[in-house]
Amino acid sequence: MDTVAAYRPKVDLSELDGRSEHEHEGKRLAPPDVLDNGGAPQQQPTVYLTETFYISSKKNTVFEVRLTDKGLCLKKQSNGSTKEQTIPLKDIIGCRCLRSKRRSRGSSSCTCASISSSGQLKVVEENSGEQDETDVSAYLYIYAYILKRNRRGGFRERTTITLRFRSFDRYEDNNREAQKWRAAIKHLIAGEPVQRLTYQPKETRKMLVILNPKSGSGKAREAFQQRVAPILAEAEIPYDLHITKKCNWAREFVRVRDVYLWRGILVVGGDGIFFEVLNGLFEREDWQTAIDELPIGIIPCGSGNGLAKTVSFLYEEPFETKPVLASALMVVKGRHSMLDVVRVETRSNIMFSFLSVGWGLISDIDIESERLRAIGGQRFTVWSVHRLISLRTYHGTVAYLPALVSQSNGGSLSAPGYANGGGGGIGTLKHSVSYNTTLNCRDCRGGQDGTGCGMGSCDACDTNFSDVLSLETGTNLDAFRPRIDSWYSATSRKSTYFSTVDSVYESDKASNDDDPTQTGGPNGAPFVQMYGPPSRLPALTAAIPDSWQCITGDFVMVHAAYQTHLSTDCYFAPQSRLNDGIIWLLIIRAGVSRSQLLSFLLGLSSGTHIPMQANEHIQMVPVTAFRIEPAGTTGHMTVDGENVECGPIQGEVFPSLAKVMVPK
Ligand SMILES: Nc1ncnc2c1ncn2[C@@H]1O[C@H](COP(=O)(O)OP(=O)(O)OP(=O)(O)O)[C@@H](O)[C@H]1O
After folding, report:
1. Count of H helices and E strands in the chain?
2. Between vectors from CA 398 to CA 275 and to CA 570, what angle results, nearest 5°?
3. Which residues contact 523 (CB under 8 A, 6 or more apart)?
4. What is the 3-state secondary structure of 482-538?
5. 323 CB less than 6 Å from ligand 1?
6. Using a 6 Å cutoff on CB, does residue 230 contact ligand 1?
């Protein structure tokens, strides 16, 4: 028989109760505000909650679990030895409380399961199914992606920590304890003060997800469904998913919709679809409000993925092995960075660019290798070799306004400030198809169709307990059977996730009302005006100002970049930062030898492409504005990797104009 009273937590949780005693491992602790005020010696972490948990299968093992401002500290005491590990707050993305449900035959509500004290299979889920009145425990699931460093940079491992609260003999009391922990964890990972007993998110709007099914090798839908949706669910970020139907669909969508219904825009695809969304926002009369209120995130499913790689590189997030996971974890943090945007003008167009403007070699490779799209990112390498053999040069004029780079901060500069235009109202479309991602139980992503849970003992799931760390309060006599010896060795699960993609996609296809391109200008043609900040440069047709540097001659390429990476493998502008106000202008003039070009191309992946010695043929210049005037119309010009007309083009940087989602 459980002697619950004997196993009541030995630690008073009164910092959240409003009571005064604070105890940890038999010692009195100062309340958090005293610790905050520097009263604690040696920078002790602030302890918000602490509790003792037992492992049913190991009689002599006890865990002291502490929630501090550093993270979740697990101190394992077993047979006289002590082992301690802290899961950093920055690695925790969410948590939720669940209650045990009895599993009935033929039930479609299978979610995640554990073995109870009586040895029966019990299913833990949030919303559906018959409640198991015999189990009064409350379960807290904590989802963490722990950073493991290795020689190649590192990777993140998924870990679920399950805390089972069972000190009290009523579920409501146990749940109250679990909810305290949940609230405290949620506040801490949101960077908010831990004050309340319950957690209400400040942001209740959904995320707008725009997915390009044609990006890269065409696997964006699967990537989102299998690797992004589960993470959004763990972080409890609801979303509306919209699948693009054709080129420019995303651009028009964000131009005409009431985008303020959403907390931000998450683009699933390549840099091209990010470009569409950014430019769609600048086509709104209220562009300034929209660009200010809506951070844009990217899940890299394209073939280049320059922006996603840049963000992960600058924030030192492991990217190479699992780029989709890395970026998904970045967007759930709810943080953003300001992003420089370059206003680009051609003879017939104005656009806003976040990545690069190119003319010549690299643009030729980018566009001409499109025919090899099926082989993914390899297409760039293959075509580089081809173009090196058949080298072309182009005649024209390149002019630029040099930037004043400050040495003290590694590259920021004093850039001109620009006045921004006004806001205003916008029209909305009538029809929207959207799905909420609310899950019955995050651990069973197949919960809706009964296909699996991922909690190891679920029949429908092929994962095992090595994925989780499960701890419980109260007695340690029961047969709750986690494999505790594999503490933090969690790996990605193979659970089948429920899909909203098909239904949304089908609904979109079925409804013309949902196609923003169906509305617009006369005769069905969309009438589009580009807003955004006005240019401060002379007109494209006007003479180049005397204060600019000007070169006329033959060029192999000219490429202006404002991200570190133009693609995953192209570390183009190592000194660049997201919001430094600098355009890095690379100029390669005719006369460069093939061996110099070869070492330039080979050095692109490591950022060693710019010769150490001054070179008359290859130079990289920090600028705030540039103009390229090709003499002819042959060759390719690109803006953010997309082909534009080959002709005069100029760009100017607007520092910190937009917002991009980042991990911290
Ligand atoms: N449903 C669609 N069908 C066809 N093309 C589309 C569709 N949706 C978007 N597009 C276009 O596909 C182009 C490429 O998309 P995206 O940038 O996502 O992938 P990518 O080109 O493979 O990646 P990257 O730009 O990183 O190289 C975009 O310019 C966009 O206009």
Report:
1. 14, 29
2. 45
3. none
4. CCCCCCCCCCCCCCCCCCCHHHHHHHHHHCHHHCHHHCCCHHHCCCCCCCCCCCCCC
5. no
6. no
Whether 223 lines ligand 1, by a CB cut-off of 6 Å, is no
Could you tell which of 210, 212, 353 is best to mutate to test the pocket of ligand 1, judged by most ligand atoms within 8 Å of the CB?
212
pLDDT value for 455 = 28
Tokens of residue 273, six digits: 């679809």
For 509, half-sphere exposure in the C-beta direction (CA atoms, 13 angstrom radius) is: 7
- Decide if pLDDT at 128 tops 90: no
Could you tell me the distance, in angstroms and rounded to a whole number, from the CA of residue 270 to the centre of ligand 1?
A: 6
Q: How far is the CA of 302 from the centre of ligand 1 (A)?
A: 7
pLDDT tier at 158, thresholds 50, 70, 90: very high
From 639, 628, 584, 582, select the one nearest 416 (Cα to Cα): 582
Q: Is the CB of 243 under 6 A from ligand 1?
A: no
Residue 605 is given by DSSP the state T
Higher pLDDT, 16 or 585: 585
Q: How confident is the model at residue 144 (pLDDT cuts 50, 70, 90)?
A: very high
User: 618: which 2 tokens?
Assistant: 């290859």
**For tokens 């839908």, what's the residue?**
221
Cβ(300) – ligand 1 distance below 6 Å: no
Read off the pLDDT of residues 473-490 as tens digits, 9 standing for 90 and up.
543 323 222 222 222 122
CA–CA distance, 657 with 288 (Å, rounded to integer): 9
pLDDT tens per residue across span 24-36: 222 223 333 333 3
Distance from C-alpha of 501 to C-alpha of 507, rounded to nearest angstrom: 10
Ligand 1 mean position, distance from CA 644 (Å): 15
Judge whether 271 counts as a catalytic residue. Answer: yes
For residue 276 and ligand 1, the question of a CB distance below 6 A is answered with yes
What whole-number distance in Å separates Cα of residue 14 and Cα of residue 177? 11
Compute the mean pLDDT over every residue in the chain, rounded to the nearest whole number.
75
Distance (Å) from CA 136 to ligand 1 centroid:
51
Out of 91, 135, 240, 271, pick the active-site residue. 271
User: Stretch 265-272: mean pLDDT, rounded?
Assistant: 97
pTM over 0.95: no
